[in-house]
Amino acid sequence: VVLSWLALALALPLPSVALENGLARTPPMGWMSWERFRCNVDCQTDPRNCISEQLFFEMADRLAEDGWRELGYEYINIDDCWSAKQRDAAGQLVPDPKRFPSGIKALADYVHARGLKLGIYGDLGIFTCGGYPGTMLEDVKQDAQTFAAWGVDMLKLDGCYSSAEEQAKGYPEMARALNATGRPIVYSCSWPAYQGGLPPQVNYTILAEICNLWRNYDDIQDSWDSVLSIVDWFFANQDVLQPAAGPGHWNDPDMLIIGNFGLSYEQSRSQMALWTVMAAPLLMSTDLRSISPSAKEILQNRLMIQINQDPLGIQGRRIVKEKSNIEVFLRPLSQAASALVFFSRRTDMPFRYTTSLAKLHFPEDAVYEVQDVFIGKIIGALKTADNFTVVINPSGVVMWYLRPMALPVQPRYVRQQAPGKGFRPALL
Protein backbone atom coordinates (compact mmCIF):
# COMPACT_ATOMS: atom_id res chain seq x y z
CA VAL A 1 0.00 0.00 0.00
CA VAL A 2 2.78 2.39 0.96
CA LEU A 3 4.58 1.80 -2.34
CA SER A 4 1.50 2.50 -4.46
CA TRP A 5 0.89 5.63 -2.34
CA LEU A 6 4.46 6.74 -3.06
CA ALA A 7 4.08 6.03 -6.78
CA LEU A 8 0.91 8.11 -6.78
CA ALA A 9 2.61 10.97 -4.90
CA LEU A 10 5.53 11.02 -7.30
CA ALA A 11 3.24 10.78 -10.33
CA LEU A 12 1.33 13.91 -9.37
CA PRO A 13 2.11 16.62 -11.92
CA LEU A 14 4.64 19.20 -10.83
CA PRO A 15 3.50 22.73 -11.59
CA SER A 16 5.75 23.35 -14.55
CA VAL A 17 8.34 22.00 -16.93
CA ALA A 18 11.71 23.72 -17.01
CA LEU A 19 13.09 25.56 -19.99
CA GLU A 20 14.46 22.75 -22.14
CA ASN A 21 18.09 23.80 -22.18
CA GLY A 22 19.20 21.49 -19.35
CA LEU A 23 20.82 24.40 -17.49
CA ALA A 24 20.64 25.78 -13.94
CA ARG A 25 19.59 22.47 -12.40
CA THR A 26 20.60 24.06 -9.10
CA PRO A 27 20.42 27.81 -8.37
CA PRO A 28 23.22 29.68 -10.20
CA MET A 29 26.07 30.97 -8.04
CA GLY A 30 28.57 33.70 -8.76
CA TRP A 31 29.28 37.41 -8.70
CA MET A 32 27.42 40.34 -10.24
CA SER A 33 28.49 43.96 -10.62
CA TRP A 34 25.28 45.94 -10.18
CA GLU A 35 24.50 46.43 -6.50
CA ARG A 36 28.06 47.29 -5.48
CA PHE A 37 29.37 49.09 -8.59
CA ARG A 38 26.15 50.29 -10.28
CA CYS A 39 26.67 52.39 -13.43
CA ASN A 40 30.00 53.94 -12.45
CA VAL A 41 31.59 54.69 -15.84
CA ASP A 42 34.04 57.33 -14.61
CA CYS A 43 37.28 55.49 -15.27
CA GLN A 44 39.21 58.76 -15.32
CA THR A 45 38.80 59.55 -11.63
CA ASP A 46 37.78 56.11 -10.29
CA PRO A 47 39.58 53.49 -12.43
CA ARG A 48 39.47 50.84 -9.68
CA ASN A 49 35.68 50.84 -9.32
CA CYS A 50 34.32 51.77 -12.74
CA ILE A 51 32.50 49.32 -15.04
CA SER A 52 35.45 48.18 -17.16
CA GLU A 53 37.14 45.00 -18.27
CA GLN A 54 39.70 45.55 -15.52
CA LEU A 55 37.02 45.19 -12.83
CA PHE A 56 35.85 41.88 -14.31
CA PHE A 57 39.40 40.56 -14.84
CA GLU A 58 40.12 41.27 -11.17
CA MET A 59 36.89 39.73 -9.89
CA ALA A 60 37.52 36.62 -12.02
CA ASP A 61 40.96 36.33 -10.39
CA ARG A 62 39.40 36.58 -6.95
CA LEU A 63 36.76 33.91 -7.70
CA ALA A 64 39.46 31.61 -9.06
CA GLU A 65 42.11 32.19 -6.40
CA ASP A 66 40.24 32.83 -3.13
CA GLY A 67 38.28 29.59 -2.82
CA TRP A 68 35.01 30.76 -4.37
CA ARG A 69 35.09 28.71 -7.57
CA GLU A 70 35.54 25.40 -5.72
CA LEU A 71 32.41 26.15 -3.69
CA GLY A 72 30.31 26.69 -6.83
CA TYR A 73 30.56 30.45 -7.35
CA GLU A 74 31.24 30.22 -11.09
CA TYR A 75 29.53 33.11 -12.87
CA ILE A 76 31.09 36.55 -13.37
CA ASN A 77 28.12 38.66 -14.45
CA ILE A 78 28.41 42.01 -16.18
CA ASP A 79 25.36 44.18 -15.47
CA ASP A 80 24.23 47.41 -17.15
CA CYS A 81 26.44 50.15 -18.66
CA TRP A 82 29.00 47.95 -20.43
CA SER A 83 28.20 48.87 -24.02
CA ALA A 84 28.95 51.79 -26.29
CA LYS A 85 26.19 54.39 -26.51
CA GLN A 86 25.36 53.29 -30.07
CA ARG A 87 25.26 50.04 -32.01
CA ASP A 88 27.88 49.69 -34.75
CA ALA A 89 27.31 50.15 -38.51
CA ALA A 90 26.06 46.54 -38.78
CA GLY A 91 23.53 47.17 -36.00
CA GLN A 92 25.44 45.06 -33.49
CA LEU A 93 25.90 45.76 -29.81
CA VAL A 94 29.52 46.64 -29.05
CA PRO A 95 31.30 47.17 -25.73
CA ASP A 96 32.51 50.65 -24.80
CA PRO A 97 35.90 50.84 -26.58
CA LYS A 98 37.63 52.79 -23.80
CA ARG A 99 36.40 50.70 -20.89
CA PHE A 100 36.45 47.30 -22.66
CA PRO A 101 39.30 47.73 -25.18
CA SER A 102 39.94 43.96 -25.43
CA GLY A 103 36.30 43.21 -26.23
CA ILE A 104 33.84 40.82 -24.57
CA LYS A 105 35.17 37.73 -26.37
CA ALA A 106 38.62 38.27 -24.81
CA LEU A 107 37.01 38.77 -21.40
CA ALA A 108 35.01 35.55 -21.83
CA ASP A 109 38.19 33.69 -22.82
CA TYR A 110 39.94 35.04 -19.71
CA VAL A 111 37.04 33.98 -17.48
CA HIS A 112 36.79 30.52 -19.11
CA ALA A 113 40.54 29.94 -18.71
CA ARG A 114 39.99 30.27 -14.96
CA GLY A 115 37.25 27.64 -14.92
CA LEU A 116 34.52 30.27 -14.65
CA LYS A 117 31.59 31.47 -16.78
CA LEU A 118 30.64 34.90 -18.08
CA GLY A 119 27.23 36.54 -17.78
CA ILE A 120 26.09 39.68 -19.61
CA TYR A 121 23.20 42.13 -19.40
CA GLY A 122 20.65 43.20 -21.98
CA ASP A 123 17.33 45.01 -21.90
CA LEU A 124 14.20 44.29 -23.90
CA GLY A 125 13.43 47.88 -24.83
CA ILE A 126 14.61 51.01 -26.59
CA PHE A 127 17.26 51.59 -23.88
CA THR A 128 18.69 49.70 -20.95
CA CYS A 129 17.76 51.03 -17.51
CA GLY A 130 21.06 52.98 -17.55
CA GLY A 131 20.35 54.56 -20.95
CA TYR A 132 22.47 52.29 -23.18
CA PRO A 133 21.18 50.61 -26.38
CA GLY A 134 18.40 48.14 -25.67
CA THR A 135 17.30 45.04 -27.56
CA MET A 136 14.21 45.85 -29.61
CA LEU A 137 12.11 42.96 -30.95
CA GLU A 138 13.85 43.17 -34.32
CA ASP A 139 17.27 42.88 -32.57
CA VAL A 140 16.54 39.75 -30.54
CA LYS A 141 18.02 37.14 -32.90
CA GLN A 142 21.08 39.20 -33.77
CA ASP A 143 21.85 39.98 -30.11
CA ALA A 144 21.46 36.33 -29.10
CA GLN A 145 23.92 35.37 -31.84
CA THR A 146 26.33 38.14 -30.77
CA PHE A 147 26.31 36.95 -27.15
CA ALA A 148 26.85 33.33 -28.24
CA ALA A 149 29.72 34.32 -30.56
CA TRP A 150 31.38 36.17 -27.68
CA GLY A 151 31.21 33.05 -25.49
CA VAL A 152 28.63 34.34 -23.02
CA ASP A 153 27.20 31.75 -20.58
CA MET A 154 24.31 33.70 -19.01
CA LEU A 155 22.05 36.52 -20.13
CA LYS A 156 20.10 38.75 -17.79
CA LEU A 157 17.39 40.47 -19.85
CA ASP A 158 15.91 43.52 -18.14
CA GLY A 159 12.67 45.27 -19.07
CA CYS A 160 13.14 49.04 -18.89
CA TYR A 161 11.61 51.11 -21.69
CA SER A 162 9.38 48.31 -22.99
CA SER A 163 5.63 47.71 -22.96
CA ALA A 164 3.79 44.70 -21.54
CA GLU A 165 3.03 43.62 -25.13
CA GLU A 166 6.68 43.84 -26.15
CA GLN A 167 7.68 41.85 -23.09
CA ALA A 168 5.08 39.16 -23.80
CA LYS A 169 6.57 38.74 -27.28
CA GLY A 170 10.22 39.45 -26.58
CA TYR A 171 10.99 37.27 -23.55
CA PRO A 172 9.82 34.00 -25.19
CA GLU A 173 11.46 35.07 -28.47
CA MET A 174 14.83 35.55 -26.75
CA ALA A 175 14.54 32.07 -25.17
CA ARG A 176 14.07 30.59 -28.66
CA ALA A 177 16.88 32.73 -30.09
CA LEU A 178 19.33 31.71 -27.35
CA ASN A 179 18.49 28.02 -27.82
CA ALA A 180 18.90 28.41 -31.60
CA THR A 181 22.51 29.59 -31.18
CA GLY A 182 23.48 26.10 -30.01
CA ARG A 183 25.46 27.61 -27.11
CA PRO A 184 24.24 26.76 -23.58
CA ILE A 185 23.24 30.16 -22.16
CA VAL A 186 21.40 30.44 -18.83
CA TYR A 187 18.50 32.84 -19.28
CA SER A 188 17.55 35.26 -16.49
CA CYS A 189 14.35 37.23 -17.10
CA SER A 190 13.14 40.38 -15.37
CA TRP A 191 9.70 39.96 -16.94
CA PRO A 192 7.60 39.23 -13.81
CA ALA A 193 9.14 42.15 -11.88
CA TYR A 194 7.71 44.53 -14.48
CA GLN A 195 4.25 42.92 -14.27
CA GLY A 196 3.88 43.07 -10.48
CA GLY A 197 5.21 39.56 -9.86
CA LEU A 198 1.82 37.88 -9.32
CA PRO A 199 -1.02 36.23 -11.27
CA PRO A 200 -3.04 36.96 -13.31
CA GLN A 201 -0.44 39.29 -14.89
CA VAL A 202 2.30 36.67 -14.39
CA ASN A 203 1.83 33.05 -15.47
CA TYR A 204 4.56 31.11 -13.65
CA THR A 205 3.86 27.89 -15.56
CA ILE A 206 4.65 29.62 -18.85
CA LEU A 207 7.56 31.52 -17.30
CA ALA A 208 9.24 28.28 -16.18
CA GLU A 209 9.13 27.02 -19.75
CA ILE A 210 10.87 30.18 -21.00
CA CYS A 211 13.39 31.27 -18.35
CA ASN A 212 15.92 29.58 -16.04
CA LEU A 213 15.50 32.24 -13.36
CA TRP A 214 13.53 35.42 -13.07
CA ARG A 215 13.40 38.56 -10.99
CA ASN A 216 9.99 38.79 -9.35
CA TYR A 217 10.27 41.97 -7.30
CA ASP A 218 12.15 45.23 -6.67
CA ASP A 219 15.92 45.70 -6.91
CA ILE A 220 17.79 45.08 -3.69
CA GLN A 221 19.49 48.11 -2.09
CA ASP A 222 22.32 48.12 0.45
CA SER A 223 20.08 48.18 3.53
CA TRP A 224 18.36 45.87 5.99
CA ASP A 225 15.02 47.54 5.17
CA SER A 226 15.46 46.45 1.56
CA VAL A 227 16.27 42.85 2.56
CA LEU A 228 13.20 42.76 4.84
CA SER A 229 10.91 44.18 2.13
CA ILE A 230 12.03 41.38 -0.24
CA VAL A 231 11.60 38.69 2.46
CA ASP A 232 8.15 40.08 3.33
CA TRP A 233 6.97 40.05 -0.28
CA PHE A 234 8.34 36.59 -1.11
CA PHE A 235 6.87 34.86 1.92
CA ALA A 236 3.57 36.77 1.88
CA ASN A 237 3.17 35.37 -1.66
CA GLN A 238 4.77 31.96 -1.06
CA ASP A 239 1.66 30.00 -2.07
CA VAL A 240 2.10 31.37 -5.62
CA LEU A 241 5.89 31.57 -5.79
CA GLN A 242 7.04 28.40 -4.03
CA PRO A 243 5.51 25.87 -6.47
CA ALA A 244 6.99 27.80 -9.44
CA ALA A 245 10.59 27.03 -8.48
CA GLY A 246 12.56 23.87 -9.17
CA PRO A 247 15.53 22.51 -11.11
CA GLY A 248 16.04 24.70 -14.17
CA HIS A 249 13.62 27.47 -13.11
CA TRP A 250 14.16 29.64 -10.03
CA ASN A 251 12.66 32.65 -8.30
CA ASP A 252 15.36 35.32 -7.91
CA PRO A 253 15.04 37.66 -4.92
CA ASP A 254 18.12 39.54 -6.22
CA MET A 255 21.77 39.79 -5.18
CA LEU A 256 23.52 39.02 -1.90
CA ILE A 257 24.72 42.31 -0.40
CA ILE A 258 26.83 40.64 2.31
CA GLY A 259 30.23 42.35 2.54
CA ASN A 260 28.99 45.85 1.67
CA PHE A 261 27.91 48.66 4.01
CA GLY A 262 24.25 48.23 4.92
CA LEU A 263 24.06 44.97 6.90
CA SER A 264 25.33 44.10 10.36
CA TYR A 265 26.98 40.73 10.99
CA GLU A 266 23.69 39.22 12.23
CA GLN A 267 21.75 40.65 9.29
CA SER A 268 24.35 39.27 6.85
CA ARG A 269 23.89 35.79 8.32
CA SER A 270 20.13 36.25 8.03
CA GLN A 271 20.24 37.18 4.35
CA MET A 272 22.41 34.15 3.58
CA ALA A 273 20.13 31.76 5.50
CA LEU A 274 16.88 33.13 4.06
CA TRP A 275 18.18 33.15 0.46
CA THR A 276 19.34 29.56 0.97
CA VAL A 277 15.95 28.47 2.28
CA MET A 278 14.33 30.20 -0.72
CA ALA A 279 16.49 28.13 -3.13
CA ALA A 280 17.63 31.50 -4.46
CA PRO A 281 20.49 32.09 -6.86
CA LEU A 282 23.56 33.11 -4.83
CA LEU A 283 24.90 36.04 -6.82
CA MET A 284 27.19 38.15 -4.67
CA SER A 285 27.57 41.86 -5.37
CA THR A 286 30.47 43.05 -3.26
CA ASP A 287 34.13 43.95 -3.67
CA LEU A 288 35.90 40.59 -3.47
CA ARG A 289 39.27 42.38 -3.47
CA SER A 290 38.63 43.84 -0.02
CA ILE A 291 35.90 41.66 1.53
CA SER A 292 36.12 41.21 5.32
CA PRO A 293 36.95 37.79 6.77
CA SER A 294 33.57 37.63 8.54
CA ALA A 295 31.58 38.33 5.34
CA LYS A 296 33.72 35.83 3.43
CA GLU A 297 33.10 33.19 6.10
CA ILE A 298 29.33 33.63 5.77
CA LEU A 299 29.41 33.45 1.96
CA GLN A 300 31.78 30.46 1.92
CA ASN A 301 29.86 28.32 4.41
CA ARG A 302 30.04 24.85 2.84
CA LEU A 303 26.98 23.37 4.53
CA MET A 304 24.90 26.45 3.63
CA ILE A 305 25.93 26.09 -0.03
CA GLN A 306 25.18 22.35 0.05
CA ILE A 307 21.66 23.16 1.29
CA ASN A 308 21.18 25.92 -1.30
CA GLN A 309 22.32 23.54 -4.07
CA ASP A 310 20.18 20.58 -2.93
CA PRO A 311 19.33 18.53 -6.05
CA LEU A 312 15.59 18.29 -5.26
CA GLY A 313 15.41 22.05 -5.73
CA ILE A 314 12.36 22.59 -3.53
CA GLN A 315 11.91 26.19 -2.40
CA GLY A 316 11.28 26.54 1.33
CA ARG A 317 8.38 28.20 3.07
CA ARG A 318 7.62 30.20 6.19
CA ILE A 319 5.73 27.79 8.43
CA VAL A 320 5.43 29.82 11.68
CA LYS A 321 4.92 33.53 12.33
CA GLU A 322 4.79 34.28 16.06
CA LYS A 323 3.43 37.37 17.83
CA SER A 324 6.84 37.53 19.49
CA ASN A 325 8.31 38.47 16.06
CA ILE A 326 9.98 35.08 15.63
CA GLU A 327 9.48 33.30 12.31
CA VAL A 328 10.36 29.73 11.31
CA PHE A 329 11.18 28.63 7.76
CA LEU A 330 11.45 25.06 6.48
CA ARG A 331 13.06 23.71 3.33
CA PRO A 332 12.72 19.98 2.52
CA LEU A 333 15.94 18.46 1.18
CA SER A 334 16.98 15.22 -0.47
CA GLN A 335 17.38 12.01 1.58
CA ALA A 336 14.57 13.14 3.92
CA ALA A 337 16.77 15.89 5.38
CA SER A 338 15.51 19.41 6.12
CA ALA A 339 16.79 22.90 6.76
CA LEU A 340 15.14 24.97 9.48
CA VAL A 341 15.71 28.70 9.95
CA PHE A 342 14.61 30.46 13.13
CA PHE A 343 14.56 34.19 12.37
CA SER A 344 14.13 37.10 14.80
CA ARG A 345 12.65 40.40 13.68
CA ARG A 346 13.15 41.70 17.20
CA THR A 347 15.37 44.69 17.88
CA ASP A 348 15.81 44.40 21.64
CA MET A 349 17.85 41.43 22.86
CA PRO A 350 18.49 37.73 22.22
CA PHE A 351 15.23 35.80 22.41
CA ARG A 352 14.75 32.30 23.78
CA TYR A 353 12.33 30.49 21.48
CA THR A 354 10.93 27.12 22.55
CA THR A 355 9.16 24.68 20.25
CA SER A 356 9.35 21.06 19.07
CA LEU A 357 9.67 19.34 15.71
CA ALA A 358 6.15 17.98 16.26
CA LYS A 359 4.82 21.56 16.34
CA LEU A 360 6.71 22.17 13.08
CA HIS A 361 4.84 19.27 11.34
CA PHE A 362 7.70 16.75 11.34
CA PRO A 363 6.64 13.06 11.25
CA GLU A 364 5.75 11.50 14.61
CA ASP A 365 8.23 9.10 16.22
CA ALA A 366 11.17 10.23 14.07
CA VAL A 367 14.66 11.04 15.33
CA TYR A 368 16.95 13.60 13.68
CA GLU A 369 20.61 14.47 13.95
CA VAL A 370 20.78 18.26 14.28
CA GLN A 371 23.70 20.28 12.94
CA ASP A 372 24.17 24.02 13.43
CA VAL A 373 24.76 25.37 9.91
CA PHE A 374 26.84 28.38 10.93
CA ILE A 375 29.02 26.73 13.55
CA GLY A 376 29.12 23.36 11.77
CA LYS A 377 28.79 21.58 15.10
CA ILE A 378 26.48 18.57 15.50
CA ILE A 379 24.19 19.44 18.40
CA GLY A 380 22.88 15.91 18.91
CA ALA A 381 19.85 13.72 18.33
CA LEU A 382 16.36 15.14 18.59
CA LYS A 383 13.06 13.27 18.76
CA THR A 384 10.03 14.83 17.12
CA ALA A 385 8.23 15.14 20.44
CA ASP A 386 11.14 16.74 22.35
CA ASN A 387 10.86 20.42 23.26
CA PHE A 388 13.97 22.48 22.52
CA THR A 389 15.03 26.11 22.88
CA VAL A 390 17.06 28.21 20.47
CA VAL A 391 18.51 31.62 21.33
CA ILE A 392 18.13 34.01 18.39
CA ASN A 393 19.90 37.37 18.26
CA PRO A 394 18.00 40.50 17.16
CA SER A 395 17.61 40.54 13.34
CA GLY A 396 19.55 37.28 13.39
CA VAL A 397 18.99 33.61 12.66
CA VAL A 398 19.66 30.16 14.00
CA MET A 399 19.87 27.65 11.17
CA TRP A 400 19.72 23.88 11.52
CA TYR A 401 20.38 21.02 9.14
CA LEU A 402 18.38 17.93 10.16
CA ARG A 403 19.23 14.42 8.96
CA PRO A 404 16.89 11.55 9.84
CA MET A 405 18.47 8.93 12.09
CA ALA A 406 15.29 6.92 12.56
CA LEU A 407 12.05 7.42 10.69
CA PRO A 408 8.62 6.02 11.55
CA VAL A 409 7.89 2.57 10.18
CA GLN A 410 5.19 3.81 7.83
CA PRO A 411 6.13 7.35 6.88
CA ARG A 412 3.43 9.58 5.54
CA TYR A 413 4.61 10.34 2.05
CA VAL A 414 3.90 13.88 1.05
CA ARG A 415 4.07 15.78 -2.20
CA GLN A 416 7.32 17.62 -2.77
CA GLN A 417 5.51 20.83 -3.58
CA ALA A 418 2.93 20.64 -0.80
CA PRO A 419 1.13 23.98 -0.51
CA GLY A 420 -0.20 25.80 2.53
CA LYS A 421 -0.07 24.77 6.15
CA GLY A 422 0.46 21.09 5.41
CA PHE A 423 3.93 21.78 4.04
CA ARG A 424 6.24 19.31 5.74
CA PRO A 425 9.55 17.61 5.08
CA ALA A 426 9.34 15.28 2.12
CA LEU A 427 10.12 11.64 2.91
CA LEU A 428 11.56 10.17 -0.26
UniProtKB/TrEMBL annotation:
<dbReference type="InterPro" id="IPR013780">
    <property type="entry name" value="Glyco_hydro_b"/>
</dbReference>
<feature type="domain" description="Alpha galactosidase A C-terminal">
    <location>
        <begin position="313"/>
        <end position="396"/>
    </location>
</feature>
<dbReference type="Pfam" id="PF16499">
    <property type="entry name" value="Melibiase_2"/>
</dbReference>
<keyword id="KW-1015">Disulfide bond</keyword>
<dbReference type="GO" id="GO:0004557">
    <property type="term" value="F:alpha-galactosidase activity"/>
</dbReference>
<dbReference type="InterPro" id="IPR017853">
    <property type="entry name" value="GH"/>
</dbReference>
<dbReference type="InterPro" id="IPR002241">
    <property type="entry name" value="Glyco_hydro_27"/>
</dbReference>
<dbReference type="InterPro" id="IPR013785">
    <property type="entry name" value="Aldolase_TIM"/>
</dbReference>
<dbReference type="InterPro" id="IPR035373">
    <property type="entry name" value="Melibiase/NAGA_C"/>
</dbReference>
<keyword id="KW-0325">Glycoprotein</keyword>
<keyword id="KW-0378">Hydrolase</keyword>
<comment type="similarity">
    <text>Belongs to the glycosyl hydrolase 27 family.</text>
</comment>
<dbReference type="GO" id="GO:0008456">
    <property type="term" value="F:alpha-N-acetylgalactosaminidase activity"/>
</dbReference>
<dbReference type="GO" id="GO:0019377">
    <property type="term" value="P:glycolipid catabolic process"/>
</dbReference>
<feature type="signal peptide">
    <location>
        <begin position="1"/>
        <end position="18"/>
    </location>
</feature>
<dbReference type="GO" id="GO:0016139">
    <property type="term" value="P:glycoside catabolic process"/>
</dbReference>
<comment type="function">
    <text>Removes terminal alpha-N-acetylgalactosamine residues from glycolipids and glycopeptides. Required for the breakdown of glycolipids.</text>
</comment>
<keyword id="KW-0443">Lipid metabolism</keyword>
<protein>
    <recommendedName>
        <fullName>Alpha-galactosidase</fullName>
        <ecNumber>3.2.1.-</ecNumber>
    </recommendedName>
</protein>
<comment type="subunit">
    <text>Homodimer.</text>
</comment>
<keyword id="KW-0732">Signal</keyword>
<dbReference type="GO" id="GO:0009311">
    <property type="term" value="P:oligosaccharide metabolic process"/>
</dbReference>
<dbReference type="Pfam" id="PF17450">
    <property type="entry name" value="Melibiase_2_C"/>
</dbReference>
<keyword id="KW-0458">Lysosome</keyword>
<dbReference type="InterPro" id="IPR000111">
    <property type="entry name" value="Glyco_hydro_27/36_CS"/>
</dbReference>
<dbReference type="GO" id="GO:0016020">
    <property type="term" value="C:membrane"/>
</dbReference>
<keyword id="KW-0326">Glycosidase</keyword>
<dbReference type="GO" id="GO:0005764">
    <property type="term" value="C:lysosome"/>
</dbReference>
